[in-house]
Amino acid sequence: MSEVVPIGDLTFEDVVHVARQGAQVTLTEDAIAEMAAARGRIEELAEGDTPAYGVSTGFGALATRHIDPELRAQLQRSLIRSHAAGNGPEVETEVVRALMLLRLRTLATGHTGVRPETAKVLEDLLNAHITPVVHEHGSLGCSGDLAPLSHVALTIMGEGQVRDAKGTLRPTGEALKEAGIEPIELAAKEGLALINGTDGMLGMLILALADLRNLLKTADVSAAMSVEALLGTDAVFADDLQRLRPHPGQRASAANLRALLRDSGIMASHRDGSCTRVQDAYSLRCAPQVAGAARDTADHAALVAGRELQSAIDNPVVLRDGRVESNGNFHGAPVGYVLDFLAIAVADVASMAERRTDRMLDVARNHGLPAFLAHDPGVDSGHMIAQYTQAAIVSELKRLAVPASVDSIPSSAMQEDHVSMGWSAARKLRTAIDGLTRVLAIETLTAARALDLRAPHRPAPGTGAALALLRESVAGPGPDRFLAPEIEAVVRLISSGALVEAVEKVTGPLS
User: Fold this and answer.
1) pLDDT (tens digit, 9 = 90+) per residue, 150-172?
2) How many CB atoms lie under 10 A from the CB of residue 485?
């Protein structure tokens, strides 16, 4: 990707472009000037006799020790080496790139006191697509994402392991030399400045919000397909009914459902007075209430993420008047709370989708469709076990909805006696989003089969576009066949955005 993102006032889209599409980054002249000015103040402190945390003292519970000037370079090296104590599976490249970008943005504010040349190494790593190996376990989400960011700082020092642009695991020194990047010997306070931020959890929040924008539209598409397949009504989605309860997300979801179901031949087929049902089940009738609440939750999370994206998080910080002050802005509670909140919304949207799928498979509730949508029920099982898979995922999503941020384990000899667990909240949200994608894929696949079985009645143009896209890679009703690849094909259509894109070509932009 040729786009170059200036390091300044980043947008969510900038973060996604750098993290996922590999966009290049550049430090602006203003950022370099701000860093240089703040660095001058740190060097004054380093040369003086007044104790300054992280400049002339130890860290955490060891902050009472004054460090002699000749040991201060070793202090920074020791900090990074000891804090690079992550463990477990490697974190995804997109997450590491996001946290690198966000840390670079904070360095560029001039509030951390790092030298411009130190920040430049981080810029070079991003542009060379050299990704430090960061492990899943190690962050308590307070004093920053210390262990994950320490693995990045270790790379800046030329130590540890990285993945190169081809994804090959290599020693850092070897990869840097090949890319023409000179490692840095950290100076006073720089080690601390590189690791004292909420960049990992914020990066995962921003990526999650990008995924959810697509998935919440997809949830409306799959819900509309299910409403049609189950001979439901779209009357309950009328805008005047939504205005009676003016939640913006609910109104947006209902508008999507109306657009998706407009001119449905299947709906027209049961509007002749023969239908005796007064109301649809909640999983159909209340779809915009649930998907809408999830939208409003995502909007709140985006508000928090936007504020965090404007923040300069470090401890201590260099203020514009030259003061260097300790603070608690590294605490991850604001981000951790909304990460947990989103996991609750994700679980509930998935739970409702699973209920609609189950209804389509039950001959007692699916209004004339064959049991389990099977070609020859009894000989064939149709989508029976696909719903089992959905149920297993939904059960896991409910466990993942248990908040991480209510937990706290004191650390650093009780100096850090309350922590956010925001990194853990972010990791489980990523798992939850993957689960929601798969649950929606199974509902979409099942609803598509049911719509085919309603022939000769035709679906609406909007839902019909989704059905047509599926049929390009997944066959229609017939005897049982290997189902797992078909589910995975729909997962790809959803996660890539192709499903929503195909629908929006017919309906116009969905909210």
Assistant:
1) 999 999 999 999 999 999 999 99
2) 10
Helices 146-156 and 116-127 cross at an angle (nearest 10°) of 90
The span from the CA of 188 to the CA of 45, in Å, is: 9
Please report how many Cα atoms fall inside a 13 Å half-sphere around the Cα of residue 163, on the Cβ side: 15
pLDDT digits (tens, 9 = 90+) for 68-122: 777 777 888 899 999 999 999 999 999 999 999 999 999 999 999 999 999 999 9
What is the spatial distance between Cα 327 and Cα 340, in angstroms, rounded to a whole number?
Answer: 25
Point out the residues that are catalytic.
53
Q: Are 371 and 361 in contact (CB under 8 A)?
A: yes
The CA–CA distances, whole Å, from 295 to 212, 263, 395 equal 9, 26, 22
CA diameter of the chain:
90
**Is the predicted pLDDT of residue 2 greater than 50, yes or no?**
no
Domains, the chain, ordered by start: 4-197 (1.10.275.10), 204-311+343-507 (1.20.200.10)
Q: What's the rounded Cα separation, in Å, for the pair 27 and 108?
A: 7
Bridging pattern class, strands 135-137 and 87-90: antiparallel
pTM over 0.90: yes
Q: What is the dihedral of CA 460, 463, 466, 469, to 10 degrees?
A: -10
Of 297, 214, 213, 305, nearest to 250 by C-alpha is 297
Do the bridges between strand 131-132 and strand 161-163 make them parallel or antiparallel, or are there none, so unpaired? Answer: antiparallel
Paired sense of beta strands 87-90 and 131-132, if any: unpaired
- Asked if 175 and 164 count as a contact pair (C-beta separation under 8 A), the reply is yes
